[in-house]
Write a structure and sequence with these properties.
single chain; mainly beta; 17-stranded antiparallel sheet; 1 helix; 61% strand
Length: 301
């Protein structure tokens, strides 16, 4: 059963998505430059309570309420160069007992600075950095600052097939360089294989306004915890430790186009993989698989 506190938080965040959609309608009506475009994405997710396993860990469990809000401006600064500027805020809230060495909150507040370069008719290159604060937002210091980077390339074979390659670079992570590859392939009239991280999917267009999909969601982040985080949990070695958090979700969903620039998605499924990894302190915590529900709003204008 979903606790009343988490239900209330999830409903509030869903209402925020609706407010953002209405705000986007008003902005579009005011007009915008043909050389600039905006992306606003808002997402809320609840993951059901799950038992947590780890070496020497007493009985404990964790549930999660996540919020993510991003806003990005795309600006065509030359025929071959597209500039991306924006901001991203994510808050992961965990309801855990003190016996579980997991922060009650992990947050990031970052800027987004990126460039897309059209190298040839077939090749597109991308570079993006996301400098910001990545921590539990207790005792904020320079140790909370991180600058992860994404490098990528896309090969545009034709209008229906594109291949994508990339690297995620974060020197603070246990895995400072993570490679990825994907494909966006419209292989039939209504079917698209959209295997692009962090949300690979198989998509089916049910109508001009409704799309069904089966896919996954992948979240990765590296965070610093507070000066006395470990003291409060009987693990002083975890004070100011670095934590890698990773999560993989799998499930079906539906996407509705509410207008030419707006869409709303709802999905549910299972969180099949979650890890809290204090890699320098050799402590790995593994919540069991558990169900989740998620709502996402997209605005493009």
């Amino acid at each position: 059963m979903v606790p009343a506190k988490s239900t209330f938080g999830f409903v509030l965040q869903f209402l925020l998505l609706l407010v953002l959609v209405e705000a986007g309608r008003k902005v579009e009506a005011a007009g915008n430059s043909r050389d600039n475009s905006w992306e606003i994405d808002a997402q809320t997710r609840f993951i059901e309570d799950a038992r947590v396993h780890g070496d020497g860990l007493q009985h404990g469990s964790a549930e999660e309420l996540a919020t993510d809000l991003s806003c990005v401006l795309w600006s065509q600064i030359s025929p071959n160069v597209l500039l991306r500027l924006g901001a991203d805020w994510q808050r992961l809230s965990f309801d855990v007992p003190k016996v579980v060495p997991v922060p009650s909150v992990l947050q990031k507040v970052s800027t987004i600075i990126g460039l897309d370069y059209q190298l040839t008719d077939k090749w597109l290159l991308r570079a993006e950095v996301q400098p910001g604060l990545y921590s539990d937002f207790q005792n904020i210091s320079w140790g909370d600052v991180d600058v992860p980077m994404i490098l990528g390339a896309a090969y545009l074979a034709n209008a229906d097939l594109q291949w994508l390659f990339g690297l995620r670079v974060d020197p603070r992570s246990r895995y400072p360089v993570l490679p990825a590859a994907g494909v966006h392939w419209r292989f039939a009239d209504r079917w698209t294989l959209n295997l692009v991280v962090p949300n690979p999917r198989l998509e089916l267009e049910l109508s001009d306004k409704v799309q069904a999909y089966l896919g996954a969601g992948i979240d990765l982040g590296t965070y610093s915890v507070a000066d006395h985080f470990g003291d409060e949990r009987g693990r002083p070695d975890l004070n100011r430790a670095t934590l890698d958090y990773s999560e993989i979700r799998v499930g079906p969903g539906l996407s509705w186009k509410l207008g030419p620039k707006f869409s709303l998605e709802a999905e549910a499924g299972y969180t099949v993989y979650r890890r809290f990894d204090f890699h320098d302190e050799h402590l790995l915590l593994r919540p069991e698989p558990s169900p989740y529900v998620q709502i996402t709003g997209h605005i493009r204008f």
